[in-house]
Design a protein that fits this description.
The complex is a heterodimer.
Chain A lengths: L2 H11 L2 H8 L3 H12 L2 H21 L5 H19 L8 H14 L7 H13 L2 H12 L4 H8 L3 H23 L3
Helix pairs in contact in A: 1-2, 3-4, 3-5, 7-10, 8-10
Chain B lengths: L1 H13 L5 H13 L1 H12 L5 H24 L4 H45 L1 E5 L6 E2 L3 H11 L8 E8 L5 E6 L5 H14 L2 E2 L2 E8 L1
Antiparallel strand pairs in B: 1-6, 2-5, 3-4, 3-6
Helix pairs in contact in B: 2-3
The chains are: A mainly alpha, B alpha+beta.
Chain lengths: 182, 212
């Protein structure tokens, strides 16, 4: 039985065992996500169990198309709410989150690239900042990992990731505007 | 399965156990999958994958699922449970009926006792000397009356009767005669009590027994 069937079956029967089968494969990833935000082993473990408890009711009401994405957003919101409850300050990278949302929206549209698109990309790469352009080139064109890029450029490892994420986003905006004839 | 695969990839990635190509592939994947990216960030913050925490979590989840199944089982009324319940109910009703049956005769017995008490009052007699009787019972007239009340059956429709008798040297009454010809059972009872249980002073006596 695949994930979608399990979801439908749980929604109709409310059998916790089915929910357990759905949830178990994601527990280790969820624990990682929770630890990222809550930064404590016990709290993160409790959070993973609490998220499960909330799903018991939520999944009986909501029709979920893509369980993995839905679960991720739900878990992240849960962690952020927990942090808010504790009145601790948490810095969430807005750029990063924005990129994710855009990705989700655009994921469905698979387009074929023409000669013109490659030209546009070349032009757009020039518009990026020096650091972003260098990281994007090394990551996507030369297929290097973050560590190699950090070694080659001398940038901090976390900065490399950020340059790639932001560079990718800027590149996308630039490409789309050129495609629309601006 | 896929989950374990991803977890071991994250573990290898964080500990630098991957080739450059594998690292690049995971990083590209994570750029498209924020779930994976956040999990990598979390495990990196934790300095690696903690398998103990994860197996603890798996245990907690299976316990939770089991608990629910047991709870559901407790409230699930299958035909077997219903049958057992029905049998228990029938047995309970039967026991109640048995108790009631046992209790009801007790009530009747209480009524019977009341009747007996009334009989007791009916059985009371008083005795007195009549005529020129000089003789008297040892212990007094009252004791004699109590003796008679106690030992005769109480079955009589007579109001009173007169007895005459003589007394031997040991003080025992003999030659007992009565002014009543019938009521043989009563007469035998009274004569028996007088002869065997009463002792007298004097030679002869005439007494009147009044049944209250």
């Amino acid at each position: 039985m695949d994930e979608k069937e399990l979801l439908v079956r749980y929604r109709t029967t409310g059998d916790i065992e089915i929910l357990g089968r759905l949830y178990a494969p994601y527990m280790s990833l969820l624990y990682g996500v929770c630890f990222k935000y809550l930064e404590d082993r016990d709290t993160s473990q409790d959070a993973v169990m609490q998220i499960f408890e909330q799903l018991v009711d939520k999944l009986r009401v909501h029709e979920v198309e893509n369980f993995k994405s839905w679960l991720y957003v739900f878990a992240r919101n849960y962690c952020l709410m927990e942090l808010r409850k504790e009145k601790r300050q948490q810095h969430v990278d807005i750029e990063h989150n924005l990129l994710e949302s855009e990705q989700k929206l655009n994921d469905a549209i698979e387009e074929k690239w023409s000669e013109r698109d490659f030209e546009n990309m070349h032009d757009c790469l020039i518009t990026l900042s020096k650091e972003q352009a260098a990281c994007i080139r090394l990551f996507y064109l030369e297929q290097q990992c973050y560590k190699d890029i950090a070694d080659a450029t001398g940038y901090d490892l976390s900065k490399v990731k950020s340059y790639i994420q932001n560079g990718k986003r800027n590149l996308k905006i630039c490409m789309e505007s050129r495609k629309n004839g601006k | 399965m896929e989950n374990n695969y991803q977890l071991s990839r994250i573990h290898n990635y964080i500990h630098g156990l991957m080739s450059r190509e594998e690292m690049h592939a995971l990083e590209r994947e994570a750029l498209e999958d924020p779930f994976l990216q956040d999990a990598i960030d979390g495990y990196r913050l934790q300095n690696g994958v903690d398998s103990k925490s994860l197996s603890l979590l798996q245990q907690r989840l299976s316990r939770r699922v089991e608990e629910h199944a047991q709870r559901q089982n407790r409230y699930f009324f299958g035909w077997q449970r219903l049958a057992i319940g029905m049998v228990a109910a029938v047995m309970f009703v039967s026991v109640c009926i048995l108790i009631l049956i046992r209790y009801l005769p007790h009530k009747k017995q209480v009524n019977v006792t009341e009747v007996e008490l009334m009989d007791e009052t009916l059985q009371k007699v008083s005795v007195q000397a009549i005529g020129n009787t000089a003789a008297e019972p040892i212990g007094g007239w009252k004791t004699l009356a109590e003796l008679l009340s106690k030992h005769y059956s109480g079955v009589t429709d007579l109001f009173e009767l007169t007895l005459r008798f003589q007394i031997d040297e040991q003080g025992r009454p003999f030659n007992i005669t009565s002014d009543v010809d019938d009521h043989l059972i009563l007469m035998n009872e009274l004569m028996d009590v007088l002869e065997k249980k009463s002792r007298w002073k004097g030679t002869d006596a005439e007494i009147k027994i009044v049944f209250n």
